[in-house]
Design brief:
Elements lengths: L5 E6 L7 H10 L1 E5 L8 H15 L5 E4 L1 E3 L2 E2 L12 H5 L7 H21 L4 E2 L13 H4 L7 H18 L2 E7 L15 E2 L3 H13 L5 E4 L3 E2 L12 H11 L5 E6 L9 H11 L3 E3 L5 H10 L5 H15 L8 H11 L11 H15 L1
Parallel strand pairs: 1-2, 1-12, 2-3, 3-6, 6-7, 7-9, 8-10, 9-11, 11-12
Antiparallel strand pairs: 4-5
Helix pairs in contact: 1-10, 4-6, 4-12, 6-7, 9-10
């Protein structure tokens, strides 16, 4: 009999598994592990790490996830990996190039990222971001949007989604049902939208257009027209009425990180409320072993409905082709995108929050 799967994406603290992490993962069988920059030294080390994670958890369908959007959100960096344009830059290509060239370049973006991920044993990417860019969009999000036109965002996002799936990578669209209008960074506080639903339909459209995507991530944002008390991630009404209802999304739904300050309560309370609201699994990002043990002891396992959605993701992995040589694709991508600045982002919101929490606990 197969072991039940913990409804949680966990994380790790270093560049290899500690003995405590091994014991935890063996005992509780988490859905998967999300990797961050602190877990990556180089390509060789990363390959060894993902191999070890799969062996310790011992499941063929264990998810090894990462944020590799391009631009300021990329965990795989130079010189070991390619440079990738920010999504806002991809969305601006139509100012210089015809529609087919733009579609091809966006597709190449996802194909090349897929090759990097597959080579290192990663099978899930928290991308693409389908939020719409507005003048007031938070700076933490603005460069990650494909633009302000909902139809363009939807179509370019669709090209990426299809390229990831055909490469054997599960894409996770975010942040459902739309996060672009908010000015507050959910890492630091709770964003609230007062707009009527008639206005928000523009934000919903890219997700509706891509409702058959295999996975999606919720937004920590209150939509007062639907639920004035809970952010979407923790709102039964919003998930049922908007994400599963109006948008019609039936893929695997995962929460954004439960360590963000947009959510209140203990980590266990946050996790349970997300799952009760309708998320299939929660995402925990700090890599703190004591917190993960407590979560694992209190977090439910995947439901039958969630397992059915996960099975569709397994088909993506099983049908994935062998790693291909995308040298021609790489040359075309580089030519169209032009010079891409090397990664020099100094601010990692997740890591900054973790350090803040550590200092706070030490003061107490």
């Amino acid at each position: 009999m197969e072991k039940p799967i913990l409804a949680a994406m966990l994380s790790i603290s270093e560049t290899k598994l500690s003995d405590d992490e091994k014991r935890l993962f063996e005992q509780f069988n988490p859905l998967g592990i999300t990797l961050f920059a602190k877990n990556i030294e180089n390509k060789s080390q990363l390959k060894s790490l993902t191999k070890e994670i799969k062996e310790v958890i011992g499941r063929e369908n264990v998810l090894i996830a990462i944020d590799q959007e391009g631009g300021r959100v990329r965990r795989l960096k130079e010189p070991e990996f390619r440079s990738y344009a920010a999504q806002i830059e991809l969305g601006r290509l139509d100012e210089k190039y015809d529609h087919e060239t733009v579609l091809r370049t966006v597709r190449n973006h996802a194909l090349l990222i897929s090759q990097d991920l597959l080579e290192c044993g990663i099978n899930w990417n928290y991308a693409p971001c389908l939020d719409i860019c507005y003048p007031q969009t938070s700076e933490v999000l603005k460069s990650r949007c494909l633009g302000n036109d909902e139809k363009k965002v939807a179509q370019l996002g669709h090209e990426m989604i299809e390229a990831y799936i055909q490469s054997g990578i599960c894409p996770c669209i975010k942040h459902m049902p739309g996060h672009g209008r908010v000015t507050v960074d959910p890492h630091l506080g709770l964003p609230i939208l007062n707009n009527p639903l008639s206005e928000l339909k523009k934000d919903f459209f890219p997700f509706y257009f891509n409702r058959k995507a295999p996975a999606g991530m919720t937004a920590h944002v209150v939509i007062k027209a639907v639920d004035d008390k809970h952010p979407v991630t923790q709102s039964k009404i919003a998930i049922k009425q908007i994400i599963r209802g109006e948008i019609g999304f039936d893929g695997f739904l995962i929460s954004d990180s439960i360590t963000m300050h947009a959510l209140k309560g203990s980590l266990t309370e946050r996790a349970i409320s997300c799952l009760d609201a309708g998320c299939d699994a929660i995402c925990y990002c700090y890599g703190n072993i004591d917190e993960m043990i407590n979560l694992a002891k209190n977090c439910p396992f995947l439901t039958d409905n969630s397992l059915n959605r996960l099975a569709k993701i397994e088909n993506i992995f099983q049908n994935s082709p062998k790693i291909k040589d995308y040298s021609v694709t790489e040359g075309d991508y580089a030519h169209i995108c032009g010079s891409i600045d090397k990664y020099d982002e100094k601010y990692d919101a997740t890591e900054t929050l973790r350090l803040m929490e550590e200092l706070k606990s030490q003061e107490n």
